[in-house]
Input
Amino acid sequence: MGEIIAMCGLICNDCLVYIATQKNDDNIRKRVVKTWSTETEHLTLNDIHCNGCQTEGKLYRFCSTCEVRKCNLERGVNICAYCAEYPCKKLEKLWKSFRTVSWKKAKTTLDSLRKLQKLA
Output
C-alpha cells in the first residue's frame, strides 16, 4: 500500500492512531492514550480509531473536528496543497498545534505535491 496523505500533509501511515486502527491493536491504542493525553485533553481507547481524514470512515477525535479538514471539504479540495490559498493561516495554526509529529515534514509533503501539480 502506498502512502496515505492527510489533508494537512501528515502521512497517515506513520500515525499511531491510523496504525492501531489498521492493525486493530489495543496495545498501540493504550500507548497513544497514555502519551498523547494532556491535563486538558484526556483521550480514551474509543478516540483512537482513524481510517484517514479523506475517508468517510472512522476518524481520530481531533481529525473529526479539524478546521482544515472542514475547509477542504467545503472547498472541494482533497488536500491543502491543491488549494489556491495554500498555505493559509488555518493550516499554519494547525501545524503549530502538532505535539507528536513534525509540522515541517507535513509542510514538505504538501510543498512537494504542489510542485508536482504545477508540473502536470
In short: The chain has a mean pLDDT of 91. Residues 7 and 108 are 13 Å apart (CA to CA). The helical segments are 16-23, 26-36, 67-75, 89-97, 103-119. The chain has five helices and no strands.
